[in-house]
Amino acid sequence: MPDAKRRRTIPQGLTAVALLFCGVVAQAADLNEAIRLFRTGKYAETVEIGAVGVEENPFSEQFPVLKLRAEMHLGRYAEALATLDKGLQQFPASLQLRTLGREVCRFNGQSERVAKFDEEIAALVSQTPWRYSDVANQVALGKWMLGQGIDPKKVLTSTFNEVKRRNPTFIDVHLAIGDLALEKHDYQMAGDAFQQAVKLDPENADAWLGVAKSFAPSDDAKTSAAMQKVFELNADHVEALLLRIDNQIDQERYEEAEKLLGQIATVNPQHPLLFAYRAIIAHLRNQPEKEQQQRQAALKHWADNPAVDFLIGKKLSQKYRFAEGETYQRQALTFDAKYLPAKAQLAQDLLRLGQEEEGLKLAEEVYEADGYNVFAHNLVTLQEELKKFRTLEADGLLLRMDAREADIYGSRVLALLQRAKSELGAKYEVELKQPIIVELFPRQQDFAIRTFGMPGGRGFLGVCFGTVITANSPASQGTTPSCWEATLWHEFCHVVTLNKTNNKMPRWLSEGISVYEERQENLAWGQSMNPRYREMILGDDLTPVSQLSSAFLSPKSAEHLQFAYFESSLVVEFLIEKHGLEILKKVLVDLSVGMPINESLVRYAGSTAALDAEFAQFARERAQALAPEADFSTPELPRRASAEQLEAYLREHPTNYAALSRLAQQFISEQKWDAAKVPLAKLRELYPRDASAAGGNALLAIVHRELGENKQEREVLNLLAELSPDDVGTFDRLTKLTLEAEEWDSTRKYAAQWLAVNPLIPEPHRRMAVAAEKLEDDDLATESYRALLALNPFDPAEAHFRLASALRRLGKLEEAKREVLLALEETPRYEAAQKLLLEIVGNSEIETRIPQEE
Question: Which of 321, 369, 375 is nearest to 344 (CA)?
Fold first, then answer.
């Protein structure tokens, strides 16, 4: 540390210019040392050097600026105020001291002085703009303008970009641009700005933190590397510690988060977000008194700081506690009605709570105030698309979907939701009093914006917020859609369990019940044991029940995340088999009042250690029961092994599943159909319920088809249809075979499975209509022909005619007349349609002559 009373020896004969030069060099050296200490987290030492610099360099405002910043980092708010007052005495026209002083005054209860500073800054810049034309003051001015609600795009283009043009190596402008872009969720711009800052100054921890935040939504590896660099440069970087704490809370690692909060307390024991995060943890642990104590501590120095309630509410909403999050955002807005982060978050909370009118109004207000707000822009723009949607209502359900899709299969969706509400609600003893909103989006981007506020979210089929479900329609999934019926059943189960627990349940249990209930409704739905899951369970990938949250919140890979869904459903199955559904419902009731999941499970299922051990044994038994004689190891064979090589390997390893499959596929490629039956028979013996594309069932179906063995092919395809919810090739083939065999019930069954995956192509509707006619189910025939017509069939006249016929049989003569006229409009010489029209008109005239009873 430099001595406050240092003496400098000046050689004799040194000129006045040289003397002045030595003073400037000494000042620069002191300032550079102070900056280095500040950047490495040595804030107390920075204050000491700054104090010396203020005394010895009365013409440099950078010393009081740096000293003030260090004191604020340490939570020495009263000392910072003193530094501010003294600095303004020395530098009465300082813009930087005033911009920093606004926060200093807030933390010292001098809110009226903040307004005074704003007036002074505006006056100074207006009266002597030349004084503040340097790059440092321009960046400070730009930040102040943002705080005044000036259009961010205008600040970016006219101030920050101008500074960057004048001095592209000035790192502060890149940091300012990056911060602005992050606030607006423009991660591309933020990443560019912060990476440029890192190139200019690789030792700048703030720049590395910006890189970490920019890549957080898209690249975990880059984020992790950048965070590591931050802590190498400054182990006590408070903002970086707060980001890590935020992630720990997301992962339910509350003890680790509290340790990091303790580290922050050694730097700044007064930091408001230190107490805000403690309030969040207290809320999640069902400690309401502690929660309020910590919140009050967070507001001790700045009593109406909106950032405190905004953060608490935001984190609670991220835990699906939208009602609690709403309360906190409203409180934040009572402190500052113009605080846009709280207003934007409140808009999102309200939309997820189904309070759409107010939520959209708030989003529009945010967009009007800040056109650069990506969330608000996306949401307001999305409303134009949503206006084109059609709303179908029944039994407290509001289904919104694309109007054309509603014509095609809207009634099927509504019927499924009604059944889910009735059956799942009764099973879990939940009465849904509030309307449930379900929205199906034909464009994945629109689904993502409605769900997350931003594009992205690929891999999500649907999301439930409690009373609102958003989902991708088959149209958004390209040529390989998933079973939309299974998705909506899964999501509606979330509606039931989230409402029963007041949204207070861990993700693993919520997902586990939903996947379990999929399987209960349909064996083909949900996830089931397969060779890979078998390997993971018998290996080292099974997560103890007491730690299952981590499997969702910090999975090793995308595959491990999918396995977490399956394992969670297996836990639910285990709990119900061992302890009964009533015990599971009691656990849900415990959660509804805030009891931690592990504490509740211990009440009914024994100690945590015993529960973990019993479930592990249960899971291993289930895994071992899958194809117990099969060898699922990877064979040591050439990539293009011949049939002879495969047969030789199988003589030594007769149960190797991969080798058997490869041999069968080799025979199939050589069109040796009878030869292929031998390994396929062994495959089916080892793993009879395999639905994979390279499994014994799928390959055997191909062989039977090529040999014209329709009966045997049907038997195999029937099994595949039971095992796979979205194998449209199987459903296509089965409906064709059953139509040829005139097995109308089977055609109807498999056409329904096909429509549960892709209702947006004509053929399953056409085949369903034929079966319905043969079964004399005119309601189903009517539905099928209406859907077919909405899909612009090749022969619309025929479809209109058959629809008219079904309507006539149902006694709906006016509708029938309209359809037969449409058929004749397409094909005027259509004799059958002409005859039907005459019959309809004749019946109508007879009916009008019959006196109606009073």
Answer: 375
Tokens of 63: 């010393």
767, 752 Cβ separation under 8 angstroms: no
Estimate to the nearest angstrom the gap between the alpha carbon of 60 and the chain centroid.
49
End-to-end CA distance of the chain: 107
Q: Model-level pTM?
A: 0.88
- d(CA 390, CA 627) in angstroms, rounded, equals 48
Taking the C-alpha atoms of residue 11 and residue 842, their distance in angstroms, rounded to an integer, is 124
Of the listed ranges 27-36, 48-57, 547-556, 759-768, the least confidently predicted one is 27-36
- In whole angstroms, what is the distance from residue 595 CA to residue 489 CA? 27
Contact 104, 67 (CB under 8 A): no
What number of other Cβ atoms are within 10 A of residue 218's Cβ? 12
Q: What pLDDT does 710 receive?
A: 93
Integer Cα distance of 42 and 766 in angstroms: 75
* pLDDT value at residue 26: 42
* 8 Å CB contact between 595 and 609: no
The H-or-E segment that residue 392 falls in is: strand 389-394
Q: Map residue 674 onto helix, strand or coil.
A: helix
> Residue 492 has which token pair?
């509606």
Sheet holding 397-402, edge to edge: 389-394, 397-402, 436-441, 468-472, 462-464
How many whole angstroms separate alpha carbon 121 and alpha carbon 136? 15
Q: 3-class SS at 473?
A: coil
Do 1 and 45 meet the contact criterion of CB atoms below 8 Å apart?
A: yes
Stretch 322-335: mean pLDDT: 96
State how far the Cα of 370 lies from the Cα of 839, in Å rounded to an integer.
Answer: 65
The kind and range of the H/E element at 109 are none
Q: Which amino acid is at 176?
A: A
Matching residue, tokens 């299974």: 486
> So what's the pLDDT on residue 383?
83
**What is the spatial distance between Cα 647 and Cα 645, in angstroms, rounded to a whole number?**
5
CB 630 within 8 A of CB 623: no
**Beta-carbon count within 10 A of 202 CB:** 11
Structure tokens at 130: 């030349």
Contacts for 341 with CB less than 8 Å, ≥ 6 apart? 306, 307, 310
**DSSP code of residue 631:** B
Q: Is 720 exposed, middle or buried (0-12, 13-18, 19+ CB in 10 A)?
A: buried
Neighbours of 434 (CB within 10 A): 11
Residues 6 or more apart whose Cβ sits within 8 Å of residue 8:
22, 26
Please state the separation of Cα 723 from the chain's center in Å: 29
